[in-house]
Amino acid sequence: MSQHSQPENESFRLAAAILNARENIDFENVYQAILLRPEWLTLIPPGHRWAILHQIVYHGKVDQLDRLLALEGNNAKFRILSPTNDGQTVLDIAEARPMLERINRLKKMDEMLNYAKETNWTKCKELIQERPEIINEKPPYRYFYLIHHLAYTGDTKIFDDLHKKYHFDLSLVVGNNKTAYDIASENEREDFVNYLSKLQTPVTRNEVGNHPSSSDVEIVRNPDGDVLLSKNDTSTLTTSLSQLNIGNNITCENDTNLYDYIRGISDQDLLHAITDPISKKILQDPVLASDGYTYERKNIMIWFEKSKNSPVNGTELKDFELKPNKIIEEMIKAIVLRSNKIQSSPAVPLATYYKIQQGDTLSKIANANHITLDEMKAANPELKNDDFLQIGQNIKLPIVQKLIDKTVTPLPVSYDTKPVNPHSILTTATTIEDQKLIPETAKSIKNESISIF
């Protein structure tokens, strides 16, 4: 790839995404662009009046908005009320009633959390009194829930007042599985820690299904930016490729645009895209739920049996419909195919040198450097006797450069305090396009009227 091709490709991708958002066509192209560059959602290029965010809101596509907002979790600069070039916000642009309600709800959550951050508890209480349902919710792009702000400041009186009236979900977590108790402990808020300890034990945040309590997802990139998955991951995913609802004609060679995209996405965003929020395993059958997040199908189906709220942000799900996320399916398949091909091909390793010490053997050196004996022999073909080495002799160590080595820990998730009727039965209706899950509670959700505050 030339030095100029990536910026040119990005400019073209941004222009195409803006055009498609404006014309209300090819949303999957828009989604892919924002997945690659979350900051583009509010970017207004020269010569334009609106960003992609404003176009999506204008067309009233609440489901599309939620999908895009779910990609903004790592974008600290995102603001839902980012203005247009003529000073309008999404509140001025939204015309359809469902979109207005969604924007207003996000705005109220933002205001509540901003007041909490400023410790303006009077305003915070007034807002919660107006919209009590948001006390255990947060926008996808915010880090703390309200309960974590309270734990950070250690204000037990405000917590007690709100908890008695509206009931906090004590098991909400942020970051690396941190509860309010953890946040208070880290910041030495002893009174708050003691207060929480006296409360009834919160609901345990169980993982769905039989997943182990921890999971390592290792992603390695070679110098070209190709993603190399660990052998355990590729073995599992290769087995599941036949189950993905996409054609077998996707290859790394003929889909250069897709792989340019995979090379360009940040490591953090890539891990976020291809792992299940519930189990933190690499997705095998990725489906989109109505909260805009992508889940492993079997895990979110189990979740629906116990809750009608989002596993990620706590908001009440508007329906229980699931749709395959084709973009993520294609990404995972392309990654697996390319990873398998690269790792099965003879590679030219990056070499460094080692000076032989007394007592060294080739096998000892290989073990000490996590290299196989065969790799050592291949890098040093001049060695006729593996165990006959001279002190002071320099030999090659075939070190494969690892650019990424990340561990993803499971995100424990809690069931909401208003569980679905345990006697309701999940029924499924499978089509080529999607699969609908229809618990009894879903019928009432669909028929509820939406009020605007």
From TrEMBL:
This is U-box domain-containing protein. One of its GO terms (molecular function) is ubiquitin-protein transferase activity. Residues 352-397 form the LysM domain. GO terms for biological process: protein ubiquitination. It comes from the Eukaryota. Gene3D superfamilies: Ankyrin repeat-containing domain (1.25.40.20), LysM domain (3.10.350.10), Zinc/RING finger domain, C3HC4 (zinc finger) (3.30.40.10). SUPFAM superfamilies: Ankyrin repeat, LysM domain, RING/U-box. Residues 269-342 form the U-box domain. The lineage of its organism: Eukaryota, Metazoa, Spiralia, Gnathifera, Rotifera.
